[in-house]
Amino acid sequence: MAAEMFTFIKDIFVPKASKRAPLRTVVLIFAVVCGLYIFSICIKQQTNIFRQPNPLQIQVIDRRNRACRNTQIEEEDIPYVHFPKPEAFSRQECVCNPVRYFVIVSMQRSGSGWFETLLNSHINLSSNGEIFGAQERRNNVSVIYKTLDKVYNLDWFSSASKNECSAAVGFKWMLNQGLMKYHEEIGEYFKRRGVNIIFLFRRNLLRRMVSLFANAYDKEAKLLNGTHKSHVHSPHEAQVLAAYKPTLNTTVLVSHLRGTEQMVTKALKWFKSTRHIVLYYEDILTNRTKLVEVQDFLKLPRRNLTSLQVKIHRGPISGQISNFHDVQKTLKGTSYENFLNTDYKL
Ligand SMILES: *[C@@H]1O[C@H](CO)[C@@H](O)[C@H](O)[C@H]1NC(C)=O
Ligand SMILES: *[C@@H]1O[C@H](CO)[C@@H](O)[C@H](O)[C@H]1NC(C)=O
Ligand SMILES: *[C@@H]1O[C@H](CO)[C@@H](O)[C@H](O)[C@H]1NC(C)=O
Ligand SMILES: *[C@@H]1O[C@H](CO)[C@@H](O)[C@H](O)[C@H]1NC(C)=O
Ligand SMILES: *[C@@H]1O[C@H](CO)[C@@H](O)[C@H](O)[C@H]1NC(C)=O
Ligand SMILES: *[C@@H]1O[C@H](CO)[C@@H](O)[C@H](O)[C@H]1NC(C)=O
């Protein structure tokens, strides 16, 4: 094949020389071809260098040039500030209000439903719920990216979508909804698009387990007049749901708690280079200043946030597990023993 090609080149360029010094000609032609090839690579690289001195800078100039030249943005904030152009509507007078992208990363029954209603009570924030709860939106990375693009372009419509004056847009994403599975690609997306992560976990994983079992039970039992509810809005409803006391399998209890704990550790490690904040449900319950911290993190104007949701399980955990004494015995001496003692004084 190579020999054929050289003969071909020889025939075109040096029809006569070939008779006298075939080897020298071949070497010469080879050297010329190599030289041209190396030269072309150099040219290509140089133009690349000239084209993208700093991609970020160009993006920013673009954004400012178009419409929002006067928007003041601090240097370190540049990657996190966006001016989306939704397809479905115009941002009108807020077209130059910067928008921040966020995601609430959490686990089921860790207070994220309640937390999201608190955030959504802010006039400038839209958190669109558990959009990756639906399997078909997380079958592969390309469909995940497509969904994310839609949300962050303000083109995702849910009951939480606000108006053109949203200053922060996001949703909540459970660890087991494709986030761990595609963590590399998703982490890359978060960094590329300047997404902020709000980690929300629960310290007391035993209470989380009780809530998981109670919620799973209610899916079948439908204690509230035949409808299943994961979150409630009155103390009466909370009381009805809390009346169910699950029995925990003590054989697998410790390994389940450890598994959950390890998953949280992994998530924190995998996404640690994305801009983030770590919150715990228990801290928000007892310290509302945490909500100010969240608003500052998203650079939102501070507001008093409210939720109509009512906590389902209150009081000491001993009254919430039917085989509490076995559970107590099982956890004694383990690192999870303190889960038995903490109480909410609410
Ligand atoms: C990704 O999943 C979506 C549906 O969830 C499907 O329509 C699409 O064909 C899939 N793409 C690839 C590359 O598998
Ligand atoms: C928040 O929303 C209000 C009302 O829609 C709007 O006037 C204001 O400019 C928005 N603030 C930000 C920071 O976008
Ligand atoms: C069931 O419905 C009745 C009548 O609508 C209402 O009074 C009652 O509070 C409901 N019970 C629960 C547990 O929601
Ligand atoms: C507890 O879990 C183990 C392992 O899955 C299972 O073999 C056992 O039957 C369970 N015990 C009860 C009481 O359900
Ligand atoms: C409440 O939260 C704020 C913000 O994170 C923190 O600075 C403060 O120390 C907390 N207060 C208590 C009593 O933990
Ligand atoms: C929030 O509520 C507190 C007490 O009710 C009040 O002092 C404060 O001014 C309110 N802050 C805002 C931003 O509305």
TrEMBL record:
SUPFAM superfamilies assigned: P-loop containing nucleoside triphosphate hydrolases (SSF52540)
Transmembrane segments: 21-39
Similarity field: Belongs to the sulfotransferase 1 family.
Lineage top rank: taxon: Eukaryota
The enzyme's E.C. designation: 2.8.2.-
GO MF terms held by the record: sulfotransferase activity
Domain Sulfotransferase: residue ranges: 102-301
Organism listed in the record: Handroanthus impetiginosus
Protein name, UniProt field: Sulfotransferase
A Pfam family: Sulfotransfer_1
InterPro entries: Nod_factor_sulfotransferase (IPR052796), P-loop_NTPase (IPR027417), Sulfotransferase_dom (IPR000863)
Keywords associated with the record: Membrane, Transferase, Transmembrane, Transmembrane helix
